[in-house]
Specification:
With 175 residues, the chain is an all-alpha fold. The chain has one domain (2-173): Hypothetical protein af1432 (Orthogonal Bundle). The chain is 68% helix and 0% strand. α4 (41-58) runs antiparallel to α5 (66-75) and α7 crosses α8. It binds fe (ii) ion (2 copies). One fe (ii) ion is lined by residues 76-77, 129-130, 153-154.
Amino acid sequence: MVKRVKQVIAALTAKITHDDRLFVNRYLTSSEQILFWGMNLPDQRHVLNVAYTALRLAKAHKNIDINLLVRCALLHDVGKIKGDVSTMDKIITVIGHRFAPRWSKKWGRLGRGNRLMNIRHAFYIYFYHAHRSSTMLKAIGASPKVIELVAKHHETPAEHDPLELMLLRKSDDLH
Ligand SMILES: [Fe+2]
Ligand SMILES: [Fe+2]
């Protein structure tokens, strides 16, 4: 848990470089880019790191759809929208998940409002952002494969998961 809290704090100093921008532009369509830039800056940094690591991991495998892998990596957390969850509330969700995981998951509710509603919203995003990301991707007409992999990125690994999904999860765990 300390690691997660440190991650949240380290993310405050996150930066995006010119090369990162070129990378995003190379792989994502213009409507996908709008979702990408709609994330919090720390989440933009996170998904870029996930994409770079996934590319590195992919070198050890054959028959990988690199384009699919990178697009899924860059888009997997688009449900975490800029200004939606404060850093403080993010820390609260990490603590809640650590000490009361089941309760935290049930208590989460979509929708911001007063202080309490914002914390419940933070818990909802923490546990259900994969679903929200995939819904947003569906709305802009992203490819069904991208939508599927993004929706499953926090699911328990299953036997016939595509290799791209396995690498996405592995890389996400490293960041
Ligand atoms: Fe995620
Ligand atoms: Fe992630």
